[in-house]
Amino acid sequence: MSHVTTTDLYEVTMALSYLKEGMDGTATFSLFVRDLPPDRGFLVSAGLESALDYLTDFRVTRGDAEDFAAVLHRPRRDLEPLVGLAFRGEVRAVPEGRVVLAGEPLMEVTAPLPQAQLVETYLLSQINHQTTVASKAVRCVLAAAGHPVVDFSLRRTHGPQAGMQAARVGAMTGFAGTSNVAAATRWGMHASGTMAHSYIEAFPDEEAAFRAFARAHPGPVTFLVDTYDTPGGVAAAARVLTGLRRGTGCAIRLDSGDLGALARQARAALDAAGLGDVAIIASGGLDEYGIDALVRSGAPVDVYAVGTRVGTSADAPYLDSAYKLVEYDGRPVMKLSSAKATAPGRKQVFRTVGQPDRLALRGESPPAGAEPLLRTVMRDGRRTGPPDDLAAAHARLTGDLATLPEPALRIHNPEPSRPQISHRLSRLTTEVRRRLQAGVHDGSSRDRSSGEPPLTDREEAPRGVHATKNRS
Amino acid sequence: MSHVTTTDLYEVTMALSYLKEGMDGTATFSLFVRDLPPDRGFLVSAGLESALDYLTDFRVTRGDAEDFAAVLHRPRRDLEPLVGLAFRGEVRAVPEGRVVLAGEPLMEVTAPLPQAQLVETYLLSQINHQTTVASKAVRCVLAAAGHPVVDFSLRRTHGPQAGMQAARVGAMTGFAGTSNVAAATRWGMHASGTMAHSYIEAFPDEEAAFRAFARAHPGPVTFLVDTYDTPGGVAAAARVLTGLRRGTGCAIRLDSGDLGALARQARAALDAAGLGDVAIIASGGLDEYGIDALVRSGAPVDVYAVGTRVGTSADAPYLDSAYKLVEYDGRPVMKLSSAKATAPGRKQVFRTVGQPDRLALRGESPPAGAEPLLRTVMRDGRRTGPPDDLAAAHARLTGDLATLPEPALRIHNPEPSRPQISHRLSRLTTEVRRRLQAGVHDGSSRDRSSGEPPLTDREEAPRGVHATKNRS
């Protein structure tokens, strides 16, 4: 399966038309999330690395063009103009791990229009999914209030590829490990996991199962204690652990029932057996709400394992993301459709500690002390630096979380932080809207004559920009 | 990335212990869904084909074993027993496209215990995800009441792999097409799609955009009419379509606003322009509820395009699926944990038209006229027949839907159909539960001496079964 054909067909039909019309002028598309889901106070930027891998490798082969021709029922020669088309544009993006708010671009792609259009679907699929799951996972880390959180989601994610990304963004938000061996191998994470209920059931009784497990695994062991009756399972685990003397790192896992009450009983039983250093891991349908309730109740749970609800972001399994044309051939553009209007022009987000973010046009000067969130990560279709790593992304997130207002960080009923809109962006939006509503859709010359500096900067125009050949 | 290491670590730690203990007796795991999500009256079986591909290719390489050793911090030699382990078991499964109810196995895997255990995570990831999305997609087809439904979900699914499967299961449930070129190519589907709002915005006005599109695409065209103001967009589309004379197959697409009201206005405008054969496609946040409302209101929508909410099964993005050991070495087993108890023994589902399904033990005789749902699809790790195709799966679904009671088919507040439990399965469940609660976990000899025929059949035991070497 070619990544190039993993696209919505309309990207292809549009690109063909652009090429036919000679419309290879420079376009900028802005990828952002319109509104946050109800229980999110902020987003965590994720998906950029795999998006850049895709753009780096993007090149339409003859085979891809043949596939396009076949589904369009067109002769192969009609698709010939696409063959060899590669991505040679500029990408400005918010690095992974940063806090992002509604309306703030996660990425802006500037390239000749056909290139920038053809990559839309795949970019959205990467950024939307990974940002969705990262923005859920971080809430588990916040709810756990310092207790380790581990990812057990692989069996319920939307296929194995989604499971890989869930493990990766979990690590980005601070998870202590994952059950997913392939992800742990690929990204150097701690791998976590011991036994299922089926393991216990395959033995005559729990104690026999625990002893057999310890025979096979010489290091610290974790015993699953809820297969039949949790107090009995805890007692069996305590008997085996007492004899083992494996030192610190051993644990029991609770996977069903009233996890808080069972954890208290288990803690008392383990302590009474002199096993004060045996940890308690809780799992089974947990997400940030379940973790929060356990933590607030003071339940003696040491480690939280989350799976299904986090790996699928079950309460908000998608974001209202968009990849919108904001400028074409020097002309700011926008969509007016009801409830889906977009702001025109290339943008920048300025972040200042202790103040709301400012969503501005790209050419605006930063407020004093402000940091610009969008960085140039690709020029001429090549990364401007080496691939980012998860530890750096996690460090960025930790920094941003420290400056977010408390209402945005809440587990229940968070209040989303919102950026302020700069005066110049507001004015441009009003002007473009007025122009479009008047039916005067090409007003670039009017913008330039307004007496103020140009509303979008020109200095950083990407190389490879072509003049528009046909402006009917 | 190896498919073998795309697994939860605990499958590996359990398999190592089984091998050390000589526990390679025959195990049967049953993959089923415990309870349906609130707004589902039934499930559509999906994911079997990719699951069988995985099992066919499953073999632990030396590289996989090295990855396992690394994440376990064990010497390579400790993982040596796994090298070369392949799947050589039997799989009985419900073919794709069949209606399945809560508690009914979608698949039963019978193999030497380490093999059957190692494949758990990946099998769940395939069956759970695809059955989840298929069970959502079919409701869109039902709601559309004969109108074509097409898949536009790729940009919002949980990554591209999930998007491929969403397109495939959409076709299985009767979708008329997909926007996903790679999926259309791979599975021979109709590919659908024309233009985005960005396309319109790149031109001076809508009419110029539509004319350019028609220049590039000689066949029937679809124009997106809601970029600025829908009635204006419809008027522009009508002017261009009137001149084009492209025959049937042309359409306009509405993607925002009050789709029902806009469709009525657009229909009237098109008809007044003599364009009665131009179809109306509706998209934008649609799922079965939105489609149902439009259809019931009599809105003149001809084709429904669904995306995000269907491709992610947004209201129920996972199923409560389980892969449970139900028999080991001739001994029926079960789990007793609160709210997660499982029924022991290998099973069969008998379906009779006009009657509830019967969930029974595998050896039971079928009721008169009943059809067994689980078929043997793999023996000795090899498929028993050629890969299934989507058309056959769709035909099976059509047949099953025709026999489902109306309450299960409802869009709003469906009542899930439930299987009856056979007398012998109930009795076995009671006996095993009693035995486990009494602490007598190995009671296989007791089952055999009960005076009735054996509760699970022996005739179809898979080849390659080994005697258990260690029953402590």
Automatic annotation (TrEMBL), chains A, B:
<feature type="domain" description="Nicotinate phosphoribosyltransferase N-terminal">
    <location>
        <begin position="6"/>
        <end position="128"/>
    </location>
</feature>
<comment type="pathway">
    <text>Cofactor biosynthesis; NAD(+) biosynthesis; nicotinate D-ribonucleotide from nicotinate: step 1/1.</text>
</comment>
<comment type="function">
    <text>Catalyzes the first step in the biosynthesis of NAD from nicotinic acid, the ATP-dependent synthesis of beta-nicotinate D-ribonucleotide from nicotinate and 5-phospho-D-ribose 1-phosphate.</text>
</comment>
<dbReference type="GO" id="GO:0034355">
    <property type="term" value="P:NAD+ biosynthetic process via the salvage pathway"/>
</dbReference>
<feature type="compositionally biased region" description="Basic and acidic residues">
    <location>
        <begin position="443"/>
        <end position="463"/>
    </location>
</feature>
<dbReference type="InterPro" id="IPR036068">
    <property type="entry name" value="Nicotinate_pribotase-like_C"/>
</dbReference>
<keyword id="KW-0436">Ligase</keyword>
<dbReference type="Pfam" id="PF17767">
    <property type="entry name" value="NAPRTase_N"/>
</dbReference>
<dbReference type="GO" id="GO:0005829">
    <property type="term" value="C:cytosol"/>
</dbReference>
<dbReference type="Pfam" id="PF04095">
    <property type="entry name" value="NAPRTase"/>
</dbReference>
<keyword id="KW-0597">Phosphoprotein</keyword>
<keyword id="KW-0328">Glycosyltransferase</keyword>
<dbReference type="InterPro" id="IPR041619">
    <property type="entry name" value="NAPRTase_C"/>
</dbReference>
<feature type="domain" description="Nicotinate/nicotinamide phosphoribosyltransferase">
    <location>
        <begin position="149"/>
        <end position="219"/>
    </location>
</feature>
<comment type="similarity">
    <text>Belongs to the NAPRTase family.</text>
</comment>
<feature type="region of interest" description="Disordered">
    <location>
        <begin position="435"/>
        <end position="472"/>
    </location>
</feature>
<dbReference type="InterPro" id="IPR041525">
    <property type="entry name" value="N/Namide_PRibTrfase"/>
</dbReference>
<dbReference type="InterPro" id="IPR013785">
    <property type="entry name" value="Aldolase_TIM"/>
</dbReference>
<keyword id="KW-0662">Pyridine nucleotide biosynthesis</keyword>
<protein>
    <recommendedName>
        <fullName>Nicotinate phosphoribosyltransferase</fullName>
        <ecNumber>6.3.4.21</ecNumber>
    </recommendedName>
</protein>
<dbReference type="InterPro" id="IPR007229">
    <property type="entry name" value="Nic_PRibTrfase-Fam"/>
</dbReference>
<dbReference type="InterPro" id="IPR040727">
    <property type="entry name" value="NAPRTase_N"/>
</dbReference>
<dbReference type="GO" id="GO:0004516">
    <property type="term" value="F:nicotinate phosphoribosyltransferase activity"/>
</dbReference>
<dbReference type="InterPro" id="IPR006405">
    <property type="entry name" value="Nic_PRibTrfase_pncB"/>
</dbReference>
<keyword id="KW-0808">Transferase</keyword>
<dbReference type="Pfam" id="PF17956">
    <property type="entry name" value="NAPRTase_C"/>
</dbReference>
<feature type="domain" description="Nicotinate phosphoribosyltransferase C-terminal">
    <location>
        <begin position="367"/>
        <end position="428"/>
    </location>
</feature>
<dbReference type="GO" id="GO:0016757">
    <property type="term" value="F:glycosyltransferase activity"/>
</dbReference>
